Amino acid sequence: MNPAQFLDGRVASLLLAGGMLNGLAYRLVEEWRADGLDAPSEFFSVSPFELLVAGVGIRLLWAAGPFVGKVGGAATALYMLLMLWPSSLIAWLLVTALATGMAFGLRGPARSGAVLFAALGAWEVWSAVLEPMAAGSILSLDAGIVAALLSAVRENVFRIGNVVGAADGHRIVVIVGCSTAHILPLAVLGASGLVLIRGERLGLAAIAGLAGLAVALAAMNLCRLTLMAWSADLYHIVHSSTGAMVFDALTSLAVVAAALAIQTRRTGVPP
Fold first, then answer.
1. Contact 185, 178 (CB under 8 A)
2. Considering only CA atoms, which of 220, 227, 229, 224 is closest in space to residue 164?
3. Using CB atoms within 10 A as the burial measure, which of 28, 53, 77, 187 is most buried?
4. Radius of gyration for the alpha carbons in the chain, expressed in angstroms and rounded
């Protein structure tokens, strides 16, 4: 086989999918250890948006021609050697690096697929490493907005750091998993994937539409946190499994509706 033709869209898709599976493996094991038989019912904390973005990325990359010369054979070989290293962080860093390199060497739908994978990998690194480091500021921002919303309709609102609620009553602690900065990027990536799988191009109009979706989803999450901070009764309703299912359904509905409503230019996704 000619080395210059080794890496095409199919091989690249398999490499990125393998890196993703390696990156998710640690999470699956940890969820199984923590929740046991309950872990499968919660999909091992794997978001459908993660699978959606990866699936669209593979679809868009699959038909790309040889491009090893544009990425670098040595970098690809190193990626293949390290892809099975038992480290979720290394796996996602490799996925991000390889997909970013591909994006610079591709055009059309294949580039969009590489960008999706790079963005997914960046989000995984963000949520695993950077987000916990910046949690104090992120969670305080959410709590501050919730306190402002509560203060508009009631008195004696208490807020310190990521704790918010009544000064002499019910309070909540905003955690990373419920923060807007944690929920927002993956949902917007999912919407981007749905737009791209239609064979569209993310021009200025599409970016504006995705920005509008981000604002709407941020407002939804902040309203959810505000309801949880209002009273213990509302907290138990909104924070229940049923409440979580309703919120997830509304989020998915908003993502699908936005993706279908965005008007963009055709690019011709491969069948």
1. no
2. 229
3. 53
4. 21
- Segment 111-127 shows an average pLDDT of 89
| Residue linked to tokens 């872990």 | 39
pTM above 0.85, yes or no: no
| 226's tokens | 């505000």
Q: Please give the Cα distance from 267 to 200 (Å, whole number).
A: 5
Backbone angles phi, psi at 111, to 5 degrees: -65, -40
Q: How confident is the model at residue 144 (pLDDT cuts 50, 70, 90)?
A: very high
